[in-house]
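Example record used in the benchmark description.
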Amino acid sequence: MTKDILTNKDFIKLKEAHTRQILDIAHKHTDEITVVARHEFVEYDPPIDKKNLQISNRQIRFTLMNYTLSSMQLPPDNLVFEAGFGAKNDGHIVSIPYKAISQISTRDQILHLNVSTLFLKKEVKLSSKDIFKQNKTNKKFFKEEKNDTDK
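Model output (C-alpha cells):
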C-alpha cells in the first residue's frame, strides 16, 4: 500500500516541487547545502569517469559551498551547479533531477527526506531498431551477430 503512494505520479510531482522549494529556501539562508541523490540519475557535462566518485548504496552525496553553492541554479526539472572533481579539480556542470534527490541537509540538520526515490527506475530509451528487434517475428530481418568463438 505504501509503495502505491510512493510511486504515484502525483505524489512524485509534489515531492519534486517540494524539493525545489526547500533548495530555494536553503540557498537563500545558508552557506552550505548537502544533497544526497540516486547516482544513476546524475548527469555531468563534460562526462565524468564515475569510478572516481564515492558512491554508497546507489547514492551519491554532494556538499555545495563557496563557488559551487553560488553557481547553483534551480530550473524547473533539475538542480544544476558547477563543481570540480579529481586531483586537478576539473570543472563539470552537474545536473540532478529533483525526483532523484533523497535528502537535503545543512551543516547541522536534515531539511528534507524524499523516500519516493527508493522506487525510481531509470528509463532506458531504446532506438526504434532495438524495439523492432525485440519482436521475435522480426529477427528474420537481421543478420545474426557472430561471436569471436564462432569463427
